[in-house]
Automatic annotation (TrEMBL):
Gene: yaaA
Source taxon at top rank: Bacteria
Record GO biological process: response to hydroperoxide
Protein name according to UniProt: Peroxide stress protein YaaA
InterPro entries hit by this protein: YaaA (IPR005583)
Alphabetical list of Pfam families matching this protein: H2O2_YaaD
Residue ranges crossing the lipid bilayer per the database entry: none
GO cellular component: cytosol
Species this protein is from: Geodermatophilus sabuli
């Protein structure tokens, strides 16, 4: 089995048809205490719009994000894999999966979250705004809150972990030995640059492939072989890092 850790998105889909948030029904109950504290703090903070803007790094044009936080416990929910939007999630495109593929994706995918710690595919969550780098009044940095509880949860995962989270979210709870994937572009002269603009899209395609395959890569070597069979140019440094190489032009 494989567990893919995805970064969240700042943007979230609106609405939903699920019942309001019930923290007790989310997967990974070890995280409930921190989830409860953060949810209450964020909702209470939303009463003070200027303070929310300062803590969350928002402008006056983004006050609708603060309104979402104010309604955290009353607004409708939807499955986590459908709540997050943006380039990576467009490439992942879970809504186009077959029923069997979606079942595998729900088992294999989890989203790193500043608010919930870890969101599994079927976790019913509302729209919200909180980033890994946010500093909430009266609370320690988020990494200090999450690492003691989320770290042991991830360390106990008894399967191959592929960590596609961005640096700020990986810092909330690093996973020793997890496979990472870097995306680089190779020019005709052989020189390479790190892909930034399309990085999320390529990681979304990797996530879709690994979430839906019937194969079960148990280590980084088998994972590399699986990606190569899919036509990707992947290099392995001999440890736990893979490099996806794109041919420029």
């Amino acid at each position: 089995m494989v567990l893919l850790l995805l970064p969240p998105s700042e943007t979230k889909a609106t609405g939903g048809d699920g019942a309001p948030l019930d923290l007790e029904r989310l997967a990974t109950p070890e995280l409930t205490a921190v989830r409860t504290e953060l949810t209450k703090t964020l909702a209470d903070l939303a009463i003070d719009v200027p303070a929310s803007r300062a803590a969350l790094g928002l402008s006056a044009t983004q006050d609708d994000e603060i309104a979402r936080n104010a309604a955290l416990t009353t607004s409708p929910t939807m499955a986590g894999l459908e709540r997050y939007t943006g380039v990576l999630y467009d490439a992942l495109d879970v809504r186009s999966l077959t029923r069997a593929q979606r079942a595998r994706a729900d088992r294999r995918l989890a989203v790193g979250s500043a608010l919930f710690g870890l969101v599994r595919g079927t976790d019913a969550i509302p729209a919200y705004r909180l980033s890994a780098g946010s500093a909430l009044p009266g609370l320690p940095p988020l990494r200090q809150l999450w690492r003691p509880v989320l770290g042991p949860v991830l360390a106990a995962v008894d399967e191959l972990v592929v960590d596609l989270r961005s640096g700020a979210y990986a810092a909330l709870a690093p996973v020793p030995g997890a496979v990472t994937v870097d995306v680089q572009s190779e020019r005709p002269d052989g020189t390479r640059t790190v892909v930034s603009h399309a990085n999320k899209a390529h990681k979304g395609r990797v996530a879709r492939l690994l979430a839906t395959t019937t194969a079960e890569p148990g280590d980084v070597v088998r994972l590399r072989a699986l990606l190569r069979r899919a036509g990707l140019h992947v290099e392995h440094d001999g440890r736990a890092a893979l490099t996806l190489v794109l041919r420029a032009g």
